[in-house]
Protein 1
Amino acid sequence: MTQLALIIDLNVCVGCSACVTSCKEWNTSGSAGPMTDFNAYGHDPTGTFFNRVQSFEIGEYPHTEMVHFPKSCLHCEEPPCVPVCPTGASYKREEDGIVLVDYDKCVGCKYCSWACPYGAREIDESQKVMKKCTLCVDRIYDTSLPEDRRQPACVLACPTSARIFGDVHDEYSEVSRLIREEGGYQLMPEWGTNPANHYLPRRKAKIKIQREDLERVENPLKDENFTKPSDDDLTLEDSSWI
Amino acid sequence: MCACRCGINVTLDKGEVRYIEGNPDHPLNKGVICAKGSSGIMKQYSPARLTRPLKRKPGTERGAGEFVPIEWDEAFEIMESRLSEIRATDPRKFALFTGRDQMQALTGMFAKQFGTPNYAAHGGFCSVNMAAGMIYTIGGSFWEFGGPDLERAKLFIMIGTAEDHHSNPLKIELAHFKRNGGKFISINPVRTGYSAIADEWIPIRPGTDGALFMALIHILIKDALFDRDFLIKYTNAAELVNQDESSDAFGLFERTTEDVREGCVDPQNKIWWDRNTNEPVSSQNRNADPFLFGEYELEGTKVKTAFQLLADRVEQYTPEWASEITGISVETITRLAHEMGITARDRKIELPIAWTDAWGEEHDSVTGNPVAFHAMRGLAAHSNGFHSIRNMAILMTLLGTIDRPGGFRHKAPFPRPIPPCPKPPRSPEDVQPNTELNGMPLGFPASPDDLFVDDRGEPVRLDKAFSWEHPLSAHGLMHNAITNAWRGDPHKIDTLLLFMANMAWNSSMNTSEIRNMLVDKEENGDYKIPYIIVCDAFQSETVQFADLVLPDTTYLERHDVMSMLDRPISEYDGPVDSVRIPVLPPTGDCKPFQEVLIEMGSRLGLKAFVDAGGQRKYRDYPDFIVNYETAPGSGIGFLAGWRGKSGEKSMKGEPNPNQWEMYANNNCVYHHKLPPSYQYMRNWNEGYLEWAQHHGLTRYAEPIQLHIYSEIFQEFRRAAQGKRPGKQPPDHLRERVETYFDPLPMYHEPLEAEMTNRREYPLSAITQRPMAMYHSWDSQNAWLRQIHAHNHLYMHPSIGNQNGFEDGDWVWVESMHGKVRCMCRFSEAVEPGTVWTWNAIGKASGSWGLDKTANESNQGFLLNHLIAEELPCRTRSGTISNSDPVTGQAGWYDVRVKVYKAADDEEQVTSPTFATMQRLPGQLEPLNRSKSLAYQSGTGRFRSWLDSASKKLKRSKS
Amino acid sequence: MHPAFSVIFLTTLLGVGQGLFMALITAQTYTLVELVHVEESSSFYALGTLLVLVFVALALFASFFHLGRPERAWRTPSQWRTSWLSREVIALPVFGAIAFIYGAIQWFGWDFEVTKIGDFSLPFSLLVGVVGVAASFTLFLCTGMIYACIRFLQEWATPLTVVNFILLGLASGFTVATVYATFTAPGLIAMFGGWAIVFTVVAAITRISALIRNSRIKPKSTPTTAIGVRHSKIRQTAQGAMGGSFNTREYFHGKSAGFLVFMKWGFLAMVFVIPLFLLVIGLSQKLSVLILAAAVIQYLGLIMERWFFFAQANHPQNIYYQVA
Ligand SMILES: Nc1nc2c(c(=O)[nH]1)N[C@H]1C(S)=C(S)[C@@H](COP(=O)(O)OP(=O)(O)OC[C@H]3O[C@@H](n4cnc5c(=O)[nH]c(N)nc54)[C@H](O)[C@@H]3O)O[C@H]1N2
Ligand SMILES: Nc1nc2c(c(=O)[nH]1)N[C@H]1C(S)=C(S)[C@@H](COP(=O)(O)OP(=O)(O)OC[C@H]3O[C@@H](n4cnc5c(=O)[nH]c(N)nc54)[C@H](O)[C@@H]3O)O[C@H]1N2
Ligand code: SF4
Ligand code: SF4
Ligand code: SF4
Ligand code: SF4
Ligand code: SF4
Ligand SMILES: [Mo]
């Protein structure tokens, strides 16, 4: 069985929000749209987004780490948001594990959003139906696009390629390899939702300096300190007995 | 192409933008796109758009914001009559300043042909320190002229960079670098964006990096971690410098021949002291093995190698000294130097690429020391930035990482001679009525004689560029243009044309005062700046102060070129340029500024735009681009690709009538990939230099030795000391020139900091770019403004604890020059002596198509009110700019402040605020019924909304 | 959570209605076994049921305000296999219908004796009533489970949630029944009032237990589990939407901690202490005004209780939306 998902590599995410607006741009005119904005030019502008980037400061100065943290629906394998829906509008697709909302069935009761621990669902305040990341279902299967462009909009946009798309059930996929080899983890594992999206942690590179690195023979200063002796200078050879 | 330089593909749906994506075949962004680029839809359909030419309503005051719509004919007539009058009398009275555009090739040419020297773009307040500091040292620079080779680097040190111009490529590369296991160190008072993913963050006090570099150089020399071979062969390190204090030639290089300079090459006629023979030897003698250190006697004159001078200089600049200044521990400084030096020495890269050097020696391989640097405005935007950057370039040179794999890499047309050839005019006589300017409006002085001053040594240009105040101001000083014009110092002007620059807001220092200057009057009631023309695409704060408003098209509606005659967009592996081809029709009565310039050039009869009979030569801008050559038959035009009759030539060749189509068929981009043997060591790469000369990229194919020691600076110093014939600084500037024109690395405090009472103003205040906003002009974007609706002043919690306020409180931030009320936010990711905010989020009420309730104008604030364009001191000749004394770079990040809690009974609103700007004629009411806005392409709603601008126009016409 | 008034009214009104219905059936049962002697009147039950239906209708009315698309409400029962919300949507009309049938039987005098149990004859209406009581319990269960089943809303995820819904419904229902009796069947006042006191006391115990439990909750989700970084100092600096978003509106009550404390003590007083006091005095002194006051105050208190119930629930998503 296929389970499509995104891997978010926090090691390289610089928090640029390209994934945020490219998502909105693709989806507002797509099958999941529109994604309405309110007070677009007024006080407290607000609107529907399927993906947002948040920032967290960790630790205290000067040992502060800064984590930029993009989050969209995690397409949980045990999605708590699905069984609670009274209309069946929320569902998880058998064929690829994408969790979707059928806007024609949704009554806008918001109950599914309560049942998502991640805050990944947002009601569209004008259409009054629940919306969320669709993993760009209307892109990834669109055969009118060139094959390498059949990827979620946010993945294509991301300048640091911090977003990687693939099937986490396929052990041989790039995403599975990354989860395995780079320490991929799930958010809030305590709820047993088994999110399909995984995050890759920060990894730190260090340089180790050995003492002898600073006392090397090819030290250019040494070169400088040798002056050629003149012919008159005495050497060992001049006074050697053997 | 997107708003700045990335390649994009725009998909339309029934005439409306469906989506904008990165062009996967574009060499710059390789298919990725940023938050702003993806939100392009909301710029196109923005209620801030200007759609009609406007004239200040007769009888109303400038700045009151009352306008009447006019036709283009009238706009052109107004401009023609004013400008032709000015041109016929005193061309200086026309000043043209342009902001963050990529159109300097055309605007600069227009100014030159008009005959005014008063032209500059944003470079002077942006990063001229970066350009000059490195170009005067290594013949190339960061910014858009070169960059770090992150594909091969093993250690990457990023200094004072938050976003930068080639941000998408940089992000792509950063990710690759990290994934390849390289170590990424960020030196920055603040940890945001890029710095967030750094393996090590080294917080530094603002404006002190120069001291850090001095100490790093100190350690590298002490511990012998420099690349001796590289220094000897490719720099002036081993060249002998006259040290005879009594001699007029003190501080100049000893030469084998007379110092005859041909054009702008740095002649290779210096002298080394050979170890083999213990004799002086010509630096041309490549078999010699010169000493790097030492003091010698050359025909009775005391001489030292340049490197010995450097070593002597940095002797006292110990890590302990730097630690006091920078706030970085001695251990960290020392470790940093060792990590750099050891990585450079022990993790060398060797690529099997054969190449030949400029002395004819063949090499089997290209080697590299994989330590890469990158720096931007964190260094540049200080008034000591030139020397900080020069110090950094010298540090990079010591490590041997210039145009080598894993280090710094040039982008065509760099490297250029030190300094590059273009020169500014040299005297007031170079400006004559109805005559082209004699000299380039902007250039690179190589000696005091290249300064643009009058007989008394006083400036000629409005912005005082190329004067003794700021001799190497290669990009002008746009930030002083308005103040100087207002004061009439050095001269009054008549017409100020601002293009794509929001000078009444975020690109001015001292914004509140500047806004007053723009409306200030003489005693006789005339405006001090008589006429202001603003060309903008949106309702910026500056539009309000215009007498004439020219509505520009958006980037989706016009032809454009990213020319190599401007700041290039080349890649390390060869020259690149590109074009923008419109995908949407112009809105309303918008007209591309390019077309305006061509029309005006034709009307004014400027040589480049008319034929021998004085008739208009070019139909329109696309026609101009294809057919214009820098000189008749030069074969060089704005575009380098597909030249020649049928597009068979590149870089140089006769005009090709189908050039646009060929660009269009090739992703709108031309990328000339050099053969690998021309891709490295280009300062000294015979093949490359000859290729570049042959293709018109450079005039000379001479090697470009790196300047550890700057003789050019010594020449300015000698002039200041009165030891040199030729142009002399006015007496009150002698000491200044002597101090700052130090041929060796030096550190001085930012100028304003020297004049500030540190006890009263204990904190540095800086800004930086948010990745999801472009300066002032993305608040009109319904999507982006949700990410940054307003800004906070970020600071370490200790500042709040000491001053009795809490996270989120309203505070006053006050400098010597003014104060601003804003909201504070505590952060552990900032050096405790620094406060910072995002750039240009705060807006004037009613601008940018926003309601007066918008967060930007109520909670958002602009730090520029606190930053002065002039130093708080007067010299004998009057005021002096708050700029780097070498380059005139604006000292944005020098301001010192204090922060205290706003009183409880104060309004919780930002201060200062300004009267709400009115909606302009032709500006469309937002398409948001019941406050909601739901963009969906293909519905026709947005298209007809924009079309209604033209419909209204027709109605009012008939 | 952001307390939505539609849901506050829905659950409290429904609770009163269900409790009142149970009170009526209790009265009928008592009468049957002659524990109380009242001037038996079918209009007493009929009008009482009408009152129940009014409460249910009001609740239903309120519930529609909670739906973005009420016109699609007909779809909501479809997922009864998995969704407690669906189940509630089914249980509610079932209860309403049974109550209606019960009321109709009483009103139209369609009652008949089904069988005799000892001396007592068992009327058909009572049988229907008992089924209605079962439906009412089911409905309480469904309503309670809507909240109790969301396991990561730890304040809700406890059997106490269901127990409290039931007991508070019973308490308020019996109090209202007491008021009703003062106007229609004085003989039942003591019985209703007595049970009202009992239910209020028991509800106080269970509700306070829930408060104590909730005050001791250790959130299972922490910033560490939310973003996967192990550190005791994790501070959010941006949530990506400065003008707010659905996530900041739906899951935060937006009131101060002080207000929350006020609401807590307020509801404890108004749901439990004051009504108990008024009921005791009212019953003993036969002061119907006090009984009426007890009912009104208790209902207002229940609105506060429900507000607090929502406000106190701290959704784990809030970890991602701390700073606007
Ligand atoms: N998204 C976006 N991209 C842009 C722009 C934009 O507005 N938005 N503008 C474009 C333009 S015009 C420019 S000039 C570039 C500028 O791009 P950057 O050079 O990245 O400019 P700044 O945002 O000014 O970032 C300066 C950085 O230097 C740090 N800094 C300040 N003072 C010091 C110091 O003394 N020492 C050190 N080491 N660091 C210091 C600041 O904390 C900040 O991180 O960006 C371009 N790209
Ligand atoms: N405090 C502080 N101030 C700074 C800086 C800082 O770091 N700190 N940075 C400085 C730097 S480096 C720079 S480059 C400047 C940038 O300052 P500006 O050059 O003023 O930059 P923008 O705010 O981008 O303003 C550009 C103007 O161009 C308009 N525009 C946009 N698109 C078009 C178009 O297609 N055609 C036309 N005609 N107009 C258009 C916009 O509406 C806007 O009014 O800010 C400087 N100001
Ligand atoms: S992240 Fe939330 S909305 Fe998405 S599947 Fe999981 S529980 Fe459902
Ligand atoms: S809001 Fe829509 S999708 Fe969510 S539970 Fe209700 S009906 Fe289902
Ligand atoms: S996968 Fe598609 S819908 Fe989901 S966040 Fe990315 S762009 Fe948005
Ligand atoms: S686009 Fe990529 S780098 Fe930028 S915020 Fe999103 S995930 Fe991070
Ligand atoms: S960096 Fe500039 S050109 Fe590139 S995608 Fe972003 S807005 Fe467009
Ligand atoms: Mo800039």
Protein 2
Amino acid sequence: MRITGFSNRRARLAVPALVLLCVPVTALADPTGGSLSPTNIFAPVSTPAHSIFGLSLFVLAVTAAIFAIVFSLLVYCVLKFGKPTADDGREPPQVYGSNQVELAWTVIPVLVVVVLFLATARVLVGIQTAAQPRNAIQVIAIGHQFWWEYRYPGLKVVTANELHVPVSDPADPSPTFITLLSADTDHSFWVPRLGGKTDLIPNHPNSMWFDPQQTGLYLGQCAQYCGTQHAKMLLRVYVQSRQDFDHWVAQQSQPAQTSTTVSEGQRIFETTACINCHAVTGTVAEGRFGPDLTHLMSRETIASGVAPNTPENLRLWIQNPAAIKPASKMPAMGLSDHQLDAVTAYLTTLQ
Amino acid sequence: MATDAISTFRPDTVSLPLVARLHDWVTTVDHKRLGILYIVYALVFLIIGGIEAAIMRIQLIRPHNNFVSPDVFNRMFTMHGTTMIFFVVMPMLFGFANYLIPLMIGARDMAFPRLNAFSFWLTAFGGILLYFSFLGANGLYGAGNAPDVGWFAYAPLTSRTFSLGHSTDFWTFSLLVSGFGSIGTAINIIATVFCLRCPGMTLARMPLFAWLNLVMAVLVILAVSPLSAAQIMLAVDRYLGGHFFDTQAGGSAVIWMHFFWIFGHPEVYVLVIPAFAFVSEIVPVFSRKAIFGYPVMVAATVCIAFISMSVWAHHMFTVGMSANVNTFFVLSTMAIAVPTGIKIFNWLATMWGGKIHFKTPMLFCIGFLFQFLIAGLTGIMLSAAPFTWHLGNSYFVVAHFHYVIVGGILFATFGAFYYWFPKMSGKKYHEPLGKLHFWLFIIGFHLTFDFMHIPGLLGMPRRIYTYEPGRGWDTLNLIATIGVFFQAAAILVFVANLLWSYFHGDTAGSDPWDAWTLEWSISSPPPVYNFATIPEVRSRRPLWDRKHPEDPDWKYE
């Protein structure tokens, strides 16, 4: 075969081919800094997330090598064996196969698969069968359309949408073990920097764990389609120092602080449909369908992370939830302006 | 020759009135007409499904966009997925199989022509039933709505508690009906391949196209049956008080997932094996070489089909299966990469040392090889279960399976369109327009789906109608949406090319590609009876033998 320069047609093929090569490589060589995105899977801060990250890099390296080899072969075929402009009109030599060659490209991939499988199985079993240390934090997460309920058995804390966990010291780990339940449809708990996702399935309890090694706020969102408002079922995990976490627990386990200055709002709250769904510990409100409001104002957001928890947003949420989150299960309460102000005033005292 | 005179004799159907011609098409049992019906039907739904995709991409062009409501978005992705899988790719591939298998094996029709027609009309009815939901899903109240439970319709979202009205029922019954059609066609393909091969055509001499479609048909029977069973169980749950998937009464949501994915994963191979079949016919002809390693290609295909029945739960790595179960499915899923890799190497070896003609069908096949390579490699990433605890249900997975279905299957199918268009229509297509289609489509494809991987790595889950700013997803989604317009333009060029060439193209002649399988030995389009005299073959490339009597294949096979 002559390789005396490419014809125009070949050159025209080569340029887009090289461009196409760059695109997936750029996509795979994603930078690993947490600054790129608060939900970057390549910015791990817990043991399971770190070990998945390590496996990911290994798999990416192997697949990138395979890509480089096979893609080069493809480009070589296209450039070298493109029909020459001065063709003699004869058919090329017919080759029907080769057992040696076939055996080679069967055995080598088998070996690659064995290596990949062993590396994967090691990480998989390591994460799934991790023992639970004595000072692990137990949390029950319950998925609802379209919000998260968190219960800390033993700590007498019930909260919603904002999960608080202590930072875990590698020398004396205090990981968080979460039991995952669902009250209605399937959901999935995914906070990328803390670990992989696990589904919350009704009638099928699951569990997961992570041991965050840095304090901070970690974001995520429901990762299993759960109904109309799946998109706005956001996750917020606050990793706190042990001291801050203990303080938070002490504050959350108190009953609601009520003040006589907002007794009108409290009366409206307790005599309308609000209490069918919402609970405020220490009062007649014992509903379980919606988020527990005992310490509503200790949370930074409402409607599962969708809007900042300000009195204006709270008032709008009670008046017209669809303005913040269409198709949420919170109904518009049909209160007068005066009643809205009173109920909002009451809610803002629930520190 | 006398046979040529017979084969070019055609009843003058053009002079018949339109009603009579339409009546002929509706009542036909001819495998070629049914094949074309399947293909045209699939093209119509391709455009509908494409519009649904475009609506979703426009909604996602920026965070907190309000182009459509959450309800509409959820209906769009449900209808897009269901349409593309069941009413575009499957009918398209069945259409080519129907048209080509009898021609390639020297038969005059499929084994059961009436079953063939029945199967097509069942599939057609299924698609129409699904779309009728837009009008009738709320029963007599007038305003309908399409299903919004996602194309894999996880329980218990499909229960009457969470899915009011009848939209889910339209989904259930349309898939049940078209599923029966698919099984009918699969039985027909198997019977045809086993019983109607011409003299001399042993299984070992059958074109790879027929072999691969035979394997596909077996998989259809194995895969669609559990899906149909699950649909019946779901209907029982919804209307006859069953509790199979009713989690509020002790039913299991996970059982639905198993039922769905033991259909769903073999289904991927039902779709991709016929695409392999196209590539296995087109690459040799445009490389001017026999396929490399024919027996290995057959063995690899059977092997893929066999393994594909035991990988379904890799769709369920996040469902909370035990470490042992997860490990098994990691191994089985990685194992399937080996026969798939063998196929890619064999196609490359077929090109190696050949004289490659870069006609439009070959360009699409080269695109297929490139994209299917990447799709396979992202598939290996996804088979590493802990990696999938991140990637599962993220945009990375969406990008991955669109790489398989669009970058792989659709590219190969476009190649098949251009390759067999002269045979089906008797006309040559417009080559520059074909190349324009290729370049527009490959640019659009890569803009959309290359950049779609990255939001998945940055934590963007699928099936969200809107997303929060500040997560590094905005620009990538914008680029992905821009790609859609290139793809839409490419499809317009494609349809224009088909229409223009059909009415104004040059006459193709019986063998425009100088190819080697039996369909190119008869006129274009073929006569109703296909072969005036049933041919006899002595090798895998009967026309090569005829064209090269000095060096026939049967000396070497």
